UniProtKB/TrEMBL annotation:
InterPro entries in the cross-refs: AdipoR/HlyIII-related (IPR004254)
Organismal lineage: Eukaryota, Viridiplantae, Streptophyta, Embryophyta, Tracheophyta
Positions bound to Zn(2+): H138, H283, H287
Topology in the lipid bilayer: Multi-pass membrane protein
Keywords linked to the UniProt accession: Membrane, Metal-binding, Transmembrane, Transmembrane helix, Zinc
Domain of life: Eukaryota
Protein name: Uncharacterized protein
Region (Disordered): 1-31
Chain segments annotated as transmembrane: 88-108, 120-141, 156-176, 183-205, 211-230, 242-265, 285-307
Length: 313
């Protein structure tokens, strides 16, 4: 639990100052044992630069400063309310989680139609799981190497669940009257998702240099959704619901693809290292694009429900 980073004493002896103005007075006395309660309450945890990070926290060399490094869990949780380079990453997906929770509650309180709701709920739950795991990972991974390892696995599992469950409404409602295609597509994507989670358990999977491999794995999984969507358009091209849902799915795909590109290329911080440490770096843009994509998909889900409530087998 004890921080290995140098904790600097505040001139006023106060407690838990805002890390955004974390003390930089390197000459101050340091606490040798911050695990002692008397010590813990008298010292703040300062933000550090990229070069001072242990290897497991080095993910983006274009972000130069405002890192938390090996903070105790309590300080890491409290840091949700202070400014560092993960604050906006935490809040974008936490707010996104509550947004989807509200959408789920509004759907569940609406009048129940004739067709099964579970594929749509599975999709909403997949999105909420992804957003919550991501937010927790950004908040707490700075604690230790073990925490980083476990939380990144949960984060990858969350991304996988978002992708896999986003297939469920598309496939289930489109092929409501075609059990063979429905079972084939649902089985295929579920097995792919399980394989992706298994691969992500390998320690090497989180290596920063494998950024493109990770991006490609998730992108390929998402891209396999093109097959049932093309199949849908071949069979139901005359149905306005099929065209409308495909429109939303194309919008979703564009948002997700943009997110993957931003994530993998680390634009814009690669052009101005250090400029976007707090606001505007690629991971924040990636988070917003994920929420936008999931929101477009939510609208597709509503169209599927109204289509299949009216028109069954
Ligand atoms: Zn993230």
């Amino acid at each position: 639990m004890a921080s290995k980073t140098a904790a600097t004493i505040r001139s006023d002896g106060g407690v838990h100052a805002d890390q955004s103005v974390a003390s930089k007075n390197k000459g101050s006395p340091t606490c040798g044992d911050v695990a002692k309660p008397s010590c813990e309450h008298r010292y703040d945890y300062e933000l550090v630069g990229y070069d001072a990070l242990p290897a497991f926290l080095k993910h983006d060399e274009f972000m130069l400063d405002h890192y938390r490094s090996e903070w105790p869990v309590k300080q890491a949780i409290l840091s949700a309310f202070t400014l560092h380079n993960e604050t906006i990453n935490v809040w974008t997906h936490l707010i996104g989680f509550f947004m989807f929770l509200a959408l789920t509650m509004s759907v569940s309180s609406a009048e129940h139609g004739r067709v099964a709701r579970w594929p749509f709920y599975a999709c909403l739950c997949g999105a909420m799981f992804c957003l919550l795991m991501s937010s927790g990972c950004h908040l707490l991974a700075c604690h230790s190497e073990r925490a980083t390892y476990v939380l990144l696995r949960l984060d990858y599992a969350g991304i996988t669940s978002l992708i896999v469950t986003s297939f469920y409404p598309v496939v289930y409602y489109t092929f409501l009257c075609d059990p063979f295609s429905r079972t084939l597509y649902l089985g295929f994507i579920t097995i792919c998702g399980a394989a992706a989670v298994a691969v992500s358990l390998l320690p090497v999977f989180q290596a920063p240099e494998l950024r493109w491999t990770r991006a490609a794995l998730f992108a390929c999984m998402g891209a396999s959704g093109i097959v049932p969507i093309v199949h849908k358009m071949l069979v139901f091209s005359a149905r306005p619901e099929a065209v409308l849902t495909t429109g939303y799915e194309v919008v979703m795909g564009v948002f997700y693809l943009a997110g993957v590109l931003v994530y993998a290329t680390r634009v814009p911080e690669r052009f101005m290292p250090g400029m976007f440490d707090l606001v505007g770096h690629s991971h924040q843009l990636f988070h917003l694009l994920v929420i936008a994509g999931a929101y477009a998909h939510y609208h597709a889900g509503l169209v599927y429900l109204s289509w299949r409530d009216r028109d069954q087998c």
